[in-house]
Amino acid sequence: MAQETTVLVVADISGYTRFVLKNRTHWAHAQLIISALLDQIVVAAAPTLRLEKFEGDAAFFVESAPSELDDSIATRIDTMFEGFASTLRQMVDRNGCPCLACVGMEDLRLKVVAHRGEVIKQDIAGRQEVSGVAVIVAHRLLKNSVTSNHYLLLTDEALDVSTRGTDALEKGSIEDPDLGSIPYWL
Known about the structure:
Elements: E1 3-14, H1 16-22, H2 27-45, E2 49-55, E3 58-63, H3 73-94, H4 100-104, E4 109-124, E5 127-131, H5 133-140, E6 151-154, H6 156-161, E7 171-176, E8 180-185
Parallel strand pairs: 4-6
Antiparallel strand pairs: 1-3, 1-4, 2-3, 4-5, 7-8
Helix pairs in contact: 2-3
């Protein structure tokens, strides 16, 4: 198993748990909405980011070709936010259904976390999976105290590979019992 440095991105739909719990009787419509939003996120991520797997209301991506990027990570993430907002706006505008899921979909938002680090690719049950501390860091960053439900959170390592400056970003950190302090830019 070879180690490689790659960018990891988790795109998570904010408000999903509340949305699902509130819409148990309208579950089919709730799932159609979430599926359409996740589909748009995956389309927006390509070709720079490869879908590693879905995680309920989130999509976990890995940089497609770490040594030969033809498009920036920042552009793909911007496109995720734009595509999510556009798809949601279209569904809200075209909605004629009075069910709670269809009426409540406009409260959904998108959170994206990006980190860069070392991973190992391993074969498990016929699928290739990435693992390592970088994968844990990317996921732990979702467990933060940011009060907004719509944001981009970048680690210092991810910021190095993006084209963003820090002028418009806010510095923060999370304290993890296992990993210690994890600084980020919001």
